[in-house]
Give the backbone structure.
Amino acid sequence: MKKTLLLTTALIGTLSVLSSAQAELKIGAGVKTAWKSMDGLTAGAPARSGFSQERQIDLSTSGTLNNGLKYAAGFSLEQDGGETGFDGSEGNYVNVSMGNTTIQLGDDSAPLNGDYNIVPRAGNAMNEEVGGVIGFSQSAGTIKESAGIAVLQKFDGGAVAINFVPRFGQSMETVDTAVAAASNSKSAYEISYAGKPVSNLDVYLGYASATKDNSDVQDLKTTSIGAAYTMGNVKVGFEKVSYDLLSGVDQTMLEIGAVMKLSDNVTAGIGKTKSEVTNTSGVDTGIDEKITYLQIGYNLGAIGTQLSYVDIDNANNQNAQDAKAVVLKVNTKF
């Protein structure tokens, strides 16, 4: 699951434990609670409403190796709703750095991956706000949640990342001696750039590819391009993502958004998404999913709040599947 802090959430300190002269252990935690209400989708159907929650513990350390190289490592334990156990494949990473170059072994942590936030919002992406009923997904096609190796190179004006995973869509095995089944052995890679080529302009470019196996119709290919520009208290941006999906269906998604800082504690945003789909024969279905959203974030110091209103037409590219949703989120770190 992609982890996105609310735009207006304050920075909260974490507990730090000095474990040696060269390493520092940091422990943090957080609780995210949401209330959602949605009506529509099917004529005459009752509204969907209720609470959801996510709890997470984060541990990290950093220091200097005995050869002078810098290192950092960490992982998270996530628990959703009424789960009794924790998700152990949450943000695992081991980084070794020399200057501006970092090599990472990780799971659910690939740098500059396709889940990158380039469109400005006052809250979360739509797949997190109303996921499960819409086709739009900021994170679709990314290899972020697969286990692999990455190289991050920083330079003046930005950074480039190359991520490689031996098994697309697969996390770390449950024990360190496990070997993946043959059906899960397709590899994938991703090349991304994020930076600020000129003042006030942010740019993101990405390309990902996963080889097909016997059950797939074609290779997965994902191309992303996006930019955002800041003008005083206003920031506007867009992103276009094209997918050649493993199933043979192709999808193109476009999002535009803008936010305005109303005060030191309040940010408001508006945005629209559009998702076009072709069938396996390459013919456009002619049923575009369109989403309009309004968001406002309020920073209360130790607690960040977010309110979203979402209007959906042709959800998941299904004709006349329209809905409206209200989402209230409370996010705190301790």
